[in-house]
């Protein structure tokens, strides 16, 4: 392996490949930072460009863009509460409150460091444990995937707001995910005869509408259209902060890798689960959602680690771990390569060059994020009256470009209004996203599981891994329900 | 908070009930070749949503009775003046309260206008009017925003990134 890595390093250190990596990092920075543009869109846009390149350079470019977009989504998430990518949704929970408190520099510093550490841990795990982790993921069957989705949905219990509203949000999300043609029976569900709804509702209009458009509407309704931001200085290596978040960084990076390698789960879910775990393990869970450092470290370390983990099933099994890796899989096929069990032995140089390239990309993120954000953050001094229309234009163009669909633009505006109104009752919008993301996995694996057991639901409880995951999910919801009762009891005892 | 939450729970219940009736029309397990039909999952989700919305309504009613918070108080709180430091230009609270709806109407008008006057023309008009609507009355600033929007659309999106425009 060491020899392969050194060969990979020799390929990456060729001047042209270093230029490609650097370009990819900057393209990813810009793309991830613009709400409405995502890693998927950027990889799709650049696919035709890679035809003229050799395969190794092409995949170094695509995977480096993928890694840097996952990172850069945090910038607008923290500064504007407009996540640049779906993976950065959770980061806005504590990042934006910190910006509002005048701690944008600190929040960004935590985000950059956590992303680089998570990404590096993910890449090292990708290199060292690929065969082992792939074999673990292979042991998961439908009941385990369903149980995992249920466990993921219980994250709403830890979102810090209202469990009932969170559950309603998750259910709304699960319902939205059922719209379109049922992939198993080809039956149209809730499409009302519309061809636009036949392929379901894309995640981009929902996310952009609920998070970016609703925020612009909210800001427009405020008395002040422009709140001047104080100057901030990004401090990446802050000893006190690092001491505070080190446990979260370690836990979230490992959790991210673990979740990332499971096909179809993805970095967004890893960020959500990791955030939920950070809340659960914290001595001060009440601080989350109000500008807690661990609330930024957890999702950022996890989503970057998971993004790398999602490459494991892609390389080892030919199964994409996320939306963007599915596009990368398509790119491999277009280049005449077929990822799978024999892929590593047949294309060792390419794979190890990509691995080393990803390690270098994480170092580049650490080195170039600060000057990039310094330039980008000057936008904060632009009055919101000028920035608001530009954000709306980016959202409309970005949403339209995913499927060349004006219908998606209308959907986005609808979700924007819905998000604006729901925020009036402190509704946890992220619960809806969680339902939409996990819905297709939960339903398809549920149906497959019942088909496996001839309709016997006990299957979920007789298989050790799925039973453990479901027990954990039930335990989490029960504890969340009992916690207020326990607190009330303690208060009564104390008062007595 | 009480009235909006009650309206929300009522809407969720009504929409879920309507959709559940539609879901009943979907093929069941006995009507398709697969073991589980396309009806079970959405119907289960919608029934759970209905139950949760009832719970939310009941809890909100009970909490409102206990806390004694009235809708009037909530409205009063929502209408309370907020921090206006750094505002571009002081505006009456009534105008700023309705500004987001005006902006939404403008976005809808822009989206419709794209199909008639073209994306670039509609976007220039939108950027100028939206900047003014959001409280910026400085002509130079409006011109700069409009030019930036035009450059963003035509150069960055269209030329550099080759993103299809509406």
TrEMBL record, chain A:
Domain DUF112: 18-434
Entry's transmembrane regions: 20-47, 59-80, 107-133, 145-177, 197-217, 253-275, 314-337, 349-369, 381-402, 409-438, 458-482
InterPro entries xrefs: DUF112_TM
Source domain of life: Bacteria
Pfam families: TctA (PF01970)
Keywords tagged on the record: Membrane, Transmembrane, Transmembrane helix
Protein name: Putative tricarboxylic transport membrane protein
Organism of origin: Kushneria sinocarnis
Lineage start: Bacteria, Pseudomonadati, Pseudomonadota, Gammaproteobacteria, Oceanospirillales
TrEMBL record, chain B:
Record's compositionally biased regions (Basic and acidic residues): 74-85
Bilayer-spanning residue ranges: 39-58, 101-134, 140-161
Region (Disordered): 70-93
Cited InterPro entries: DUF1468
Pfam families membership: TctB
Alphabetic keyword roster: Membrane, Transmembrane, Transmembrane helix
Statement: the UniProt record of this protein carries the keyword Transmembrane helix: yes
Residue ranges annotated for the DUF1468 domain, each copy included: 8-166
Signal peptide interval: none
Entry protein name: Tripartite tricarboxylate transporter TctB family protein
């Amino acid at each position: 392996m060491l020899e392969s890595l050194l060969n990979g390093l020799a390929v990456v250190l060729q001047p042209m490949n270093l230029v490609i990596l650097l370009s990819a990092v900057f393209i990813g920075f810009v793309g991830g930072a613009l709400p409405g543009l995502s890693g998927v869109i950027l990889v799709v846009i650049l696919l035709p460009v890679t035809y003229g390149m050799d395969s190794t350079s092409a995949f170094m470019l695509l995977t480096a863009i993928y890694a840097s977009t996952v990172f850069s989504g945090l910038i607008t998430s923290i500064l504007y509460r407009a996540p640049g990518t779906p993976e950065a949704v959770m980061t806005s929970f504590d990042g934006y409150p910190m910006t509002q408190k005048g701690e944008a520099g600190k929040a960004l510093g935590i985000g950059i460091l956590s992303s680089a550490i998570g990404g590096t841990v993910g890449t090292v795990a990708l290199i060292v444990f690929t065969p082992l982790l792939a074999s673990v993921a292979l042991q998961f069957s439908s009941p385990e995937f369903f149980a995992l989705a249920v466990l993921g949905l219980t994250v709403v219990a830890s979102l810090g707001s209202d469990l009932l509203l969170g559950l309603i949000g998750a259910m709304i999300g699960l319902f939205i995910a059922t719209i379109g043609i049922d992939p198993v029976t080809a039956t149209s569900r809730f499409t009302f005869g519309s061809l636009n709804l036949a392929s379901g509702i894309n995640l981009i209009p929902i996310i952009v509408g609920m998070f970016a458009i609703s925020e612009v509407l909210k800001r427009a309704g405020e008395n002040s259209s422009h709140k001047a931001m104080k100057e901030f200085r990004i401090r990446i290596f802050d000893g006190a902060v690092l001491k505070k978040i080190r446990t979260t960084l370690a836990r979230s990076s490992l959790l991210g890798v673990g979740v990332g390698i499971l096909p179809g789960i993805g970095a967004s879910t890893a960020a959500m689960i990791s955030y939920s775990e950070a809340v659960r393990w914290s001595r001060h869970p009440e601080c989350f959602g109000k500008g807690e450092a661990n609330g930024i470290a957890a999702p950022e370390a996890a989503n970057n680690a998971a993004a790398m983990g999602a490459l494991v099933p892609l390389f080892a099994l030919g199964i994409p771990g996320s939306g963007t890796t599915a596009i990368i899989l398509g790119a491999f096929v277009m280049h005449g390569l077929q990822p799978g069990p024999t892929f590593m032995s047949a294309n060792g140089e390419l794979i190890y060059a990509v691995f080393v390239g990803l390690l270098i990309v994480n170092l580049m993120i650490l080195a170039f994020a600060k000057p990039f954000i310094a330039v980008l953050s000057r936008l904060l001094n632009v009055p919101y009256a000028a920035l608001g229309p530009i954000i709306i234009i980016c959202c409309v163009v970005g949403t339209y470009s995913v499927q060349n669909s004006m219908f998606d633009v209308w959907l986005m505006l609808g979700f924007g209004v819905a998000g604006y109104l729901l925020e009036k009752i402190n509704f946890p919008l992220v619960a809806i996203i969680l339902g939409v993301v996990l819905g297709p996995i939960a339903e398809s694996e549920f149906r497959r599981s019942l088909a496996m057991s001839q309709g016997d639901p006990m299957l979920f409880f007789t298989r050790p891994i799925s039973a453990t995951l479901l027990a954990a999910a039930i335990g989490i919801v029960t504890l969340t329900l009992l916690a207020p009762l326990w607190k009330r009891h303690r208060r009564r005892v104390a008062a007595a | 908070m009480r009235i909006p939450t009650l309206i929300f729970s009522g809407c969720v219940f009504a929409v879920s009930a309507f959709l559940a009736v539609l879901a009943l029309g979907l093929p069941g397990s006995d009507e398709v070749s697969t073991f589980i039909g396309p009806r079970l999952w959405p119907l289960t989700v919608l029934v759970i949503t209905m139950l949760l919305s009832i719970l939310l309504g009941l809890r909100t009613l009970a909490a409102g009775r206990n806390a004694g918070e009235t809708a009037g108080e909530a409205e009063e709180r929502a209408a309370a003046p907020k921090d206006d430091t750094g505002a571009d230009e002081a505006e009456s609270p009534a105008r700023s309260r309705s500004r987001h709806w005006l902006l939404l109407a403008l976005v809808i008008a822009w989206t419709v206008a794209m199909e008639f006057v073209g994306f670039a023309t509609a976007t220039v008009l939108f950027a100028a009017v939206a900047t003014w609507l959001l409280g910026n009355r400085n002509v130079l600033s409006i011109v700069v925003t409009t030019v930036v929007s035009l450059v963003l659309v035509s150069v960055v999106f269209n030329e550099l990134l080759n993103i299809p425009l509406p």
